[in-house]
Amino acid sequence: MARTHGRGGAGPRKTNKKGQVKGSGGVRRRGLEGKGATPKAEDRVYHKAHKRKLERQRRDSGRHEQDKAELVVGRNPVVECLHAKVPATSLYLVQGTRSDERLTEAVAIANGRNIPIVEVPRHEMDLMTGNGMHQGIGLQIPPFKYADVEDLVGDVAATGENGMFVVLDNITDPRNLGAVIRSVAAFGGHGVVIPERRSASVTAVAWRTSAGTAARLPVARATNLTRTLKMFQQNGYQVVGLDAGGEHTLDTYDGGADKVVIVIGSEGKGISRLVRETCDVIMSIPMTAWVESLNASVAAGAVLSEFARQRRLAD
């Protein structure tokens, strides 16, 4: 009896077809289907707009951190802030704190300025400050309200005056910032511009050092100092950078007639490269040979005083 193979005794089926005999599994059909709406440019990770979005989010996050309310603690600092008329929303006192002359003075000033006085348990003040070094008193200061640079330029243009601004680069000490604000106010300047990042901001320390002038002189923050300086130039301002080895000195430069922006860097770093390259003029301050540099606020005072003198002579 013959042996059979496979089902029903039939041998393997032969075929002459070449190539793929199975279907594509729906791949070609899915490939023809629509992929939905095109994502926004800022949502595409490879697009420049996405990078700009991330940078904006980081910047906004940093601004949020800087703009939080500040709590000044300690009897002397609180009394100094109150005397300097630093704006405050509340005076906190720890329940049961022993009174002395400074605490009594702080309460009297707060009452006179209608600042709410809030008594809190000691453990709550410890949590608010992160330690127990508050001496039983704290003054809450709201975030400083910064001006817009372009608005300041427009406001000065509306008055018909020749504007005089100070731009600070690499200044991280709030005491320096406060002293510059005070000098700008004293010599008829129109405002101070600081970077949003890596810069001192208007804190209670800057308020105190400014001796209250921060309440009246506008301070603006710039996202990019180079772009801000170019904006000033487009509005007719001469940008003068203070740095050693400049083509002008304070003796040879006439800052009395023009709209001027004075750029001041830190005592150690000076002004940054891109900012320096954007300046129209680099100017130095004549000094005794063995003195290497001046503190930023001292340099600002010297230049502003001379420019104010030149403006008085020009009038």
Could you characterize what this model shows?
With 315 residues, this protein is α/β, with parallel strands linked by helices. It folds into two domains: 70-141, Ribosomal protein L30/S12 (60s Ribosomal Protein L30, Chain: A, 2-Layer Sandwich), CATH 3.30.1330.30; 149-314, SPOUT methyltransferase, trefoil knot domain (Alpha/beta knot, 3-Layer(aba) Sandwich). The chain is built from eleven helices and eleven strands. The strands form two sheets. A seven-stranded parallel β-sheet has the order 7-6-5-10-8-11-9, sandwiched between helices. A four-stranded mixed β-sheet has the order 1-4-2-3. It is globular, with a radius of gyration of 33 Å. The model is unreliable at 1-8 (pLDDT under 50).
Helix % is 25-40%
Number of domains: 2
Write down the Rg. Answer: 33 Å
Distance between the termini: 131 Å
Please mark out the parts with pLDDT under 50 across 5 or more consecutive residues, or reply none.
1-8
CATH class of the largest domain: Alpha Beta
Amount of beta strand: 15-25%
CATH homology-level superfamily of the largest domain: SPOUT methyltransferase, trefoil knot domain
Task: Please count the helical segments.
Answer: 11
What would the principal axes of the Cα set say about the shape?
A: globular
- What does the largest sheet look like? 7 strands, parallel
CATH topology of the largest domain: Alpha/beta knot
Largest sheet: spatial strand order: 7-6-5-10-8-11-9
Mean pLDDT over the full residue set: 82
What pattern of helices and strands is seen along the backbone?
HHEHEHEHEHEHEHEHEEEHEH
Biased composition (Basic and acidic residues): 57-70
InterPro entries: Alpha/beta_knot_MTases (IPR029028), Ribosomal_eL30-like_sf (IPR029064), rRNA_MeTrfase_TrmH (IPR004441), SpoU_MeTrfase (IPR001537), SpoU_subst-bd (IPR013123), tRNA_m1G_MTases_N (IPR029026)
Biased composition (Basic residues): 47-56
Keywords: Methyltransferase, Transferase
